[in-house]
Amino acid sequence: MEFCGLDEAVGRHVRPGDAIHVVMGHSRWSALVRELARQHWRRDSGFTLIMASLSSLGTVLVRAGCLRKVVSVYSGDSFPVFTPNPVFQAGFREIEVEHWSFLTYVARLRAAATGAPAAVTTSLAGSTMSVENDAYTQVDTPFGAVGLVAPLTPDIAILHAAVADREGNLAIAPPMFEGVVGALAARRGVLATVERVVDDLRPWSGFVRIPAHRLLAVVEAPFGAHPGGVSVGPAEQALPVQGYAEDIPFWIEVRDASRTEDFDAWIREWILEPADHDAYLAKLGADRLAALAAPARRREPVPATEEPTPTERAAVWFADLVAERVAATGADVVLAGAGLANLGAWAGVGMAREAGRAVELAAELGLWGYDPTPGDPYPFSLANFPTSSMLLDTEQILGSFITSPTTRAIACVGAALLDRHGNLNTTRTDDGTHLVGSGGANDIVTGAEETLVVGTMSPRRFVEHTDYVTSPGDRVRAVVTDQGVLEQRDSELVLTAVAPGPEPQEDRIAAARARCGWPLRVADDVRDLREVTTSDVGTLRRYDPDGLFLGRRSTGGRQ
Question: Is this entry keyworded Transferase (predicted)?
Fold first, then answer.
């Protein structure tokens, strides 16, 4: 193990043809990944990139031309909203891509880390991923049918940790997202950046996650996770470094740049031209870095007075349904997916708690029992970490709780493409255009007791048939839209409630059917949904004051 600079770590230890695993904790990027792109820009290096969430900066590696294959779970933008990215859409037509769910991705890494020939999974059955991935199979055993995934073994792992000691042990505060199994599985070892190197980590041994013998090189690089953030743990146990927040404007800047014809100019400015990490930090500026490291100031949202948008009406009806289903099922937990589903779940859980229900919120990054932060609609915000009763990882949240028969869980997800049977597609359109991938959707939709879906209805999104099934619709109970509510009856979604309005109900039903991509059946007992007023959307707007997910987007992003 050596202490060295970024250029030396990558230059000495990364080889053409490597399977490179970028480890994702709550820090989602690394100065080492930036250096990797810099050294291998426009080189046919033949890398296999193993990375759970590529997000907007993953586009840089696609543009670099150094990738042969991508093994991923989510490849799209995260800020200011979750959207497909045109660089992935173009690049993935040339690069081989394997799509996995979070649990199966982690299970494959764990199999490699433990030397097992395969890992058992309850995910993927009934999805297109189960058919297209040779590393998945289902076998009959004396105990029943079992899904198996093959080991996924990187050559080298790259990550950012908060602290290292002089021997190279690495400390990372939770939540852990995918955990460190990929770092333990890497054939040759780990390259790490850290905020600081200290003499002794034994006072924080509970946060030491990767032992020194796994390390090839450690680079001391303050703000090495930028534009991602670093949490150092609860104040009473905090690691001996300064944490900092996500640089949201920077994430938005790279997203916007990736949609221009001159994206390479942005890459030159921020990735290729800074001579070293110090130059990169100098370009960011001391004031910007100090603001990221300063204690978070709670944003006090200004109440909006505009009439509810169609998207807001759908979110209110969705929150009503979440509260109703919590009461009906006695749910222990609601897992809030991203975007509109997240906001509706937050509001619905709040209503359920006001009614005396003991129900928790969970997020797949590793949050359990958290209270959302007003003014910040992002479910994985570092601002939500201190409010959590448990800080875990994805495998524990999804595998130990959401899919467990001993936990009553309701899943809340959005609708990218949805067919008449409730099957969800967030991966690829029928013409082969990449969307974003499964994320944790397949795991939670197949594992939770029931799933509630929310989205605005259009024939483009509500289709009779989708060639690609990311998440099968067996456990989709209801879909809430701006036009009404669809519920599963005899394995088909049927209109059971319609949006209110001055028109006769039959006209409103006809309007809903016209917005659906298949001949939508109507229940005999169809009912009117309640009117939604400005006061009804107050909670939603407090969470999302800029209207990023609520259909009122008026700013370039959160401040």
Answer: yes
DSSP string, 220-278: E-TTTTTTS-B----GGG--SS--B---HHHHHHHHHHTTSTTHHHHHIIIIIS--SHH
Strands 333-336 and 360-363: parallel
pLDDT tens-place string over residues 199-258: 999 999 999 999 999 999 999 999 999 999 999 999 889 999 999 999 999 999 999 999
Which tens digits make up the pLDDT trace of 453-497?
999 999 999 999 999 999 999 999 999 999 999 999 999 999 999
Selection from 408, 508, 491, 412 nearest residue 457 by Cα: 508
CA 158 to chain centre: 19
φ, ψ (nearest 5 deg) of residue 498: -125, 150
pTM of the model: 0.95
Q: Which amino acid is located at 556 in the chain?
A: G
DSSP letter (8 states) at residue 426: -
- CA–CA gap between residue 130 and residue 318 (Å, rounded): 30
Measured distance CA(442)–CA(471) in Å, rounded: 5
The residue length of the chain stands at 559
DSSP 482: S
C-alpha span between 270 and 256 (Å, rounded): 14
State whether residue 34 is helix, strand or coil: helix
Residue 500 near residue 316, CB atoms below 8 Å? no
Please calculate the CA angle 112-229-382 and round it to the nearest 5 degrees: 95
Strands 367-368 and 417-418: unpaired
